[in-house]
Amino acid sequence: WQIPVCYHPSFGLDLEEMAAKKHCTVEDIIALHTGVSYLIYFIGFLPGFLYLGGLHATLHTPRIATPRIRVAKGSVGIGGAQTGVYPQNSSGGWNIIGKSPVNFFNTNNVAPIFAKPGDRIQFIPITLATFYEVEKEVANKTYTLKSSLL
Protein backbone atom coordinates (compact mmCIF):
# COMPACT_ATOMS: atom_id res chain seq x y z
CA TRP A 1 0.00 0.00 0.00
CA GLN A 2 1.24 3.45 -0.91
CA ILE A 3 0.21 6.00 1.70
CA PRO A 4 0.49 9.74 0.97
CA VAL A 5 1.98 11.75 3.84
CA CYS A 6 2.52 15.47 4.19
CA TYR A 7 5.56 16.32 6.30
CA HIS A 8 4.72 20.04 6.50
CA PRO A 9 5.73 21.69 9.82
CA SER A 10 2.07 22.32 10.66
CA PHE A 11 1.58 18.52 10.76
CA GLY A 12 5.07 17.33 11.76
CA LEU A 13 4.92 18.61 15.33
CA ASP A 14 8.14 16.82 16.36
CA LEU A 15 9.92 16.75 13.01
CA GLU A 16 12.34 19.65 13.58
CA GLU A 17 13.18 18.56 17.12
CA MET A 18 13.79 15.01 15.92
CA ALA A 19 16.10 16.26 13.16
CA ALA A 20 18.06 18.33 15.68
CA LYS A 21 18.40 15.37 18.07
CA LYS A 22 19.53 13.13 15.20
CA HIS A 23 21.99 15.77 13.91
CA CYS A 24 20.45 15.77 10.47
CA THR A 25 18.00 17.81 8.42
CA VAL A 26 14.23 17.53 8.23
CA GLU A 27 14.73 16.44 4.62
CA ASP A 28 16.98 13.59 5.84
CA ILE A 29 14.27 12.41 8.25
CA ILE A 30 11.67 12.48 5.47
CA ALA A 31 13.97 10.63 3.05
CA LEU A 32 14.69 7.93 5.62
CA HIS A 33 11.01 7.59 6.55
CA THR A 34 9.83 7.32 2.95
CA GLY A 35 12.76 5.28 1.68
CA VAL A 36 11.63 1.88 2.94
CA SER A 37 8.64 -0.42 2.83
CA TYR A 38 7.18 -1.22 6.26
CA LEU A 39 5.76 -4.54 7.39
CA ILE A 40 2.44 -4.38 9.25
CA TYR A 41 3.18 -6.31 12.44
CA PHE A 42 -0.27 -6.03 13.97
CA ILE A 43 -3.27 -3.75 14.41
CA GLY A 44 -4.12 -2.40 17.83
CA PHE A 45 -4.19 0.41 20.39
CA LEU A 46 -7.00 1.94 18.30
CA PRO A 47 -9.08 0.28 15.58
CA GLY A 48 -7.04 0.68 12.41
CA PHE A 49 -3.76 1.65 14.11
CA LEU A 50 -1.12 -0.21 12.11
CA TYR A 51 2.08 -1.04 13.97
CA LEU A 52 4.75 -0.89 11.27
CA GLY A 53 8.17 -2.48 11.46
CA GLY A 54 11.25 -1.81 9.37
CA LEU A 55 11.96 1.74 10.54
CA HIS A 56 15.50 2.86 9.69
CA ALA A 57 17.65 2.64 12.85
CA THR A 58 18.53 6.34 12.61
CA LEU A 59 14.86 7.16 13.18
CA HIS A 60 14.41 5.03 16.31
CA THR A 61 13.21 7.55 18.89
CA PRO A 62 11.72 7.05 22.35
CA ARG A 63 8.13 8.08 22.94
CA ILE A 64 7.67 11.67 24.11
CA ALA A 65 7.99 12.24 27.88
CA THR A 66 4.44 13.55 28.32
CA PRO A 67 1.84 12.11 25.96
CA ARG A 68 -0.37 14.58 24.14
CA ILE A 69 -4.02 14.74 25.12
CA ARG A 70 -4.99 15.08 21.46
CA VAL A 71 -3.24 13.70 18.40
CA ALA A 72 -5.06 14.43 15.15
CA LYS A 73 -6.49 11.69 12.96
CA GLY A 74 -3.99 10.79 10.24
CA SER A 75 -0.93 11.85 12.26
CA VAL A 76 2.15 9.81 11.39
CA GLY A 77 4.28 9.01 14.39
CA ILE A 78 7.42 7.25 15.52
CA GLY A 79 7.60 5.42 18.82
CA GLY A 80 10.77 3.49 19.55
CA ALA A 81 11.57 1.26 16.58
CA GLN A 82 8.13 1.49 14.99
CA THR A 83 6.12 3.95 12.95
CA GLY A 84 2.38 4.19 12.51
CA VAL A 85 -0.61 6.38 11.70
CA TYR A 86 -3.27 7.45 14.20
CA PRO A 87 -6.55 6.34 12.57
CA GLN A 88 -8.68 8.75 14.61
CA ASN A 89 -8.27 11.64 17.04
CA SER A 90 -6.72 10.22 20.17
CA SER A 91 -4.28 10.79 22.96
CA GLY A 92 -0.80 9.54 22.18
CA GLY A 93 2.87 9.58 22.99
CA TRP A 94 4.59 9.02 19.67
CA ASN A 95 6.73 11.64 17.92
CA ILE A 96 4.54 13.20 15.22
CA ILE A 97 6.37 13.80 11.94
CA GLY A 98 3.58 14.18 9.37
CA LYS A 99 -0.04 13.55 8.47
CA SER A 100 -1.88 11.38 5.96
CA PRO A 101 -5.25 12.39 4.49
CA VAL A 102 -6.23 8.71 4.08
CA ASN A 103 -8.83 6.98 6.28
CA PHE A 104 -7.26 4.08 8.14
CA PHE A 105 -10.51 2.96 9.77
CA ASN A 106 -13.95 3.36 8.23
CA THR A 107 -16.96 1.51 9.62
CA ASN A 108 -18.91 2.30 6.43
CA ASN A 109 -16.68 -0.08 4.45
CA VAL A 110 -17.27 -3.83 4.30
CA ALA A 111 -13.67 -4.18 5.46
CA PRO A 112 -13.22 -1.22 7.85
CA ILE A 113 -9.42 -1.55 7.71
CA PHE A 114 -7.94 -1.65 4.20
CA ALA A 115 -4.73 -3.46 5.21
CA LYS A 116 -3.88 -6.49 7.31
CA PRO A 117 -0.89 -7.86 9.22
CA GLY A 118 1.74 -9.05 6.77
CA ASP A 119 0.93 -6.36 4.21
CA ARG A 120 3.49 -3.70 3.37
CA ILE A 121 3.16 0.07 3.57
CA GLN A 122 5.28 2.69 1.86
CA PHE A 123 4.88 6.36 2.70
CA ILE A 124 4.86 8.74 -0.27
CA PRO A 125 5.73 12.38 0.52
CA ILE A 126 3.20 14.95 -0.70
CA THR A 127 2.98 18.73 -0.58
CA LEU A 128 0.53 20.65 1.58
CA ALA A 129 -1.53 21.52 -1.51
CA THR A 130 -1.69 17.85 -2.53
CA PHE A 131 -2.66 16.91 1.03
CA TYR A 132 -5.75 19.14 0.82
CA GLU A 133 -6.60 17.83 -2.66
CA VAL A 134 -6.41 14.21 -1.49
CA GLU A 135 -8.35 15.08 1.67
CA LYS A 136 -11.19 16.42 -0.52
CA GLU A 137 -11.09 13.29 -2.70
CA VAL A 138 -11.26 11.09 0.41
CA ALA A 139 -14.26 13.09 1.70
CA ASN A 140 -15.96 12.82 -1.72
CA LYS A 141 -15.15 9.08 -1.89
CA THR A 142 -13.25 9.54 -5.15
CA TYR A 143 -9.78 8.72 -3.82
CA THR A 144 -8.36 5.24 -4.37
CA LEU A 145 -5.42 3.95 -2.38
CA LYS A 146 -2.59 2.63 -4.50
CA SER A 147 -1.88 -0.99 -3.83
CA SER A 148 1.18 -2.66 -5.30
CA LEU A 149 3.54 -5.46 -4.49
CA LEU A 150 6.22 -3.84 -2.37
What's the topology here?
Elements: E1 2-6, H1 15-21, H2 26-34, E2 38-43, E3 50-53, E4 68-71, E5 75-79, E6 82-85, E7 90-92, E8 95-99, E9 120-126, H3 128-139
Parallel strand pairs: 1-9
Antiparallel strand pairs: 2-3, 2-9, 4-7, 5-6, 5-8
Radius of gyration over alpha carbons?
Answer: 14 Å
CATH superfamily: Cyclophilin-like
Strand elements, count: 9
Give the strand line-up of the largest sheet.
1-9-2-3
Tell me the number of structural domains: 1
Strand content: 25-35%
The biggest beta sheet reads: 4 strands, mixed
Which runs of at least 5 residues are low in confidence (pLDDT < 50)? none
Percent in helix: 10-25%
Shape, please?
A: globular
Helices and strands, in order, run as EHHEEEEEEEEH
Taking the alpha carbons of the first and last residues, their distance comes to 8 Å
What would you say the CATH architecture is?
Beta Barrel
Mean pLDDT: 94
Look at the structure and give the CATH class.
Mainly Beta
